[in-house]
Hints:
Blueprint: H1 14-22, H2 27-35, H3 42-46, H4 54-66, E1 70-74, E2 82-86, H5 88-91, H6 94-107, H7 114-122, H8 124-136
Antiparallel strand pairs: 1-2
Helix pairs in contact: 6-7
Amino acid sequence: xxxxxxxxxxxxxxxxxxxxxxxxxxxxxxxxxxxxxxxxxxxxxxxxxxxxxxxxxxxxxxxxxxxxxxxxxxxxxxxxxxxxxxxxxxxxxxxxxxxxxxxxxxxxxxxxxxxxxxxxxxxxxxxxxxxxxxxxxxxxxxxxxxxxxxxxxxxxxxxxxxxxxx
Length: 166
């Protein structure tokens, strides 16, 4: 779906337009937390382990909502609180996030389990389909567990960690 070009875009290039919306260091991590970890609240994003400042988090959530990536909904149990949910435009980022995850595991040293990454790499369509199913059904169950550094809490995985070799 083509939207009307924004007046403050640098160019008409699709990559440039996407980066105008998602090109900062936090936006895709927020989308990841909703899509993959099942996070819904400001507090969950704030305590995700990435170290985002509250003012930056507030700004990014507003930008993602304005950009049509997220919806802000009143929490069912407390009307003063909000839950965030991906829109169709937001869930369409599932293939992008999966490829970034795989690329990052191959190119950088990370805390991701090599076996888990290889399984996702071999089953891309199933991983994306499961992310979409969880979105459609509003299922907050994490798709994959958070990656935990050796210095932090112990990982529940017994798989070797680090950079994958091709």
